[in-house]
């Protein structure tokens, strides 16, 4: 349960909390195993997306080509993408791509790597695809656990959501960590993954009522 606290001790000790009012809102979340040893002030993202898989339609396709080299783009949605043959061609073909909300994306071409919100390649087989052949590409929901934010991630943790209030070690097991979910914090004392900086995540943090300042 979220808890409103006046974190005066931390405010005075390390300057993480900024502004003239050190009141913050905290909650406990699960930090995913493998996240490593994380320090207070680490900015966290939430794992909202899991594995991506592809399967031919239940009734079976006429063409025996495959859908391979699947990966998530940063804007992938959880749910099922419908990839259906709209134009048949010898050793090729064109497929429409419909996202889980029913929006049509850029068409895919057999033999050409498809890149975007999801990434995949349709490969030709010994029997050509025909109009109506289809693959379902499914993006599973993520664990809902947290790890250090990094803009190159594609599992949802590329978006900043919380700030770690106390150091944890999630190197080899999930751990429960206390995080800040609202308040004002000094940008100079935040820790990000990769080469990210506060500039990369300030807008996302603002969206969840976490404000950044340079005033201690």
Helix content: under 10%
CATH superfamily of the largest domain: Head decoration protein D
Note the beta-strand portion: 35-45%
CATH topology of the largest domain: Virus Head Decoration Protein, Chain: A
How confident overall, as mean pLDDT?
A: 92
- How do the SSEs run, as a string of H and E? EHEEEEEEEEEEEEEEHE
Number of strands: 16
User: How many individual helices?
Assistant: 2
Q: What separation lies between the terminal Cα atoms?
A: 28 Å
The CATH architecture of the largest domain would be: Beta Barrel
Which shape, going by the Cα principal axes?
elongated
Given as residue ranges, the uncertain stretches (5+ residues, pLDDT < 50) are: 1-12
Largest sheet: 7 strands, mixed
Based on CA atoms alone, the radius of gyration comes out at: 22 Å
Integer tally of domains: 2
Please sum up the structure shown.
It is built from two helices and 16 strands. The protein has 216 residues and is mainly beta.
How is this structure best described in words?
The protein is mostly beta strands. The protein has 2 domains: 3-48 and 143-213, Virus Head Decoration Protein, Chain: A (Beta Barrel); 49-141, no CATH class. It is 8% helix and 44% strand. The protein contains 2 helices and 16 strands. Strand 7 (79-89) and strand 8 (92-98) form a beta hairpin. The chain is elongated, with a radius of gyration of 22 Å.
Describe the structure using short key phrases.
216 residues; mainly beta; Virus Head Decoration Protein, Chain: A; 7-stranded mixed beta sheet; 5-stranded antiparallel beta sheet; 16 strands; 8% helix; elongated
């Amino acid at each position: 349960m979220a808890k409103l606290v006046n974190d005066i001790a931390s405010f005075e000790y390390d300057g993480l909390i900024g502004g003239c009012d050190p009141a913050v809102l905290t909650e406990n979340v699960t930090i995913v195993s493998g996240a490593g040893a994380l320090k207070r002030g680490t900015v966290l993202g939430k794992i909202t997306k899991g594995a991506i898989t592809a399967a031919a339609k239940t009734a079976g396709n006429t063409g025996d080509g495959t859908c391979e080299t699947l990966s998530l783009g940063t804007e992938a949605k959880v749910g099922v993408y419908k990839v259906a043959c709209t134009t048949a061609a010898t050793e090729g073909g064109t497929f429409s791509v419909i996202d889980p909300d029913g929006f049509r994306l850029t068409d895919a071409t057999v033999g050409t790597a498809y890149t975007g919100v999801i990434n995949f390649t349709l490969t030709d087989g010994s029997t050509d695809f025909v109009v109506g052949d289809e693959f379902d590409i499914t993006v599973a929901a993520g664990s809902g656990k947290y790890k250090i934010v990094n803009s190159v991630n594609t599992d949802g943790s590329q978006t900043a959501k919380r700030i770690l209030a106390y150091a944890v070690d999630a190197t080899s097991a999930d751990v429960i960590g206390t995080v800040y979910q609202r308040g004002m914090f000094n940008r100079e004392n935040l820790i990000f993954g990769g080469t990210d900086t506060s500039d990369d995540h300030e807008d996302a943090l603002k969206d969840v009522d976490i404000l950044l300042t340079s005033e201690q």
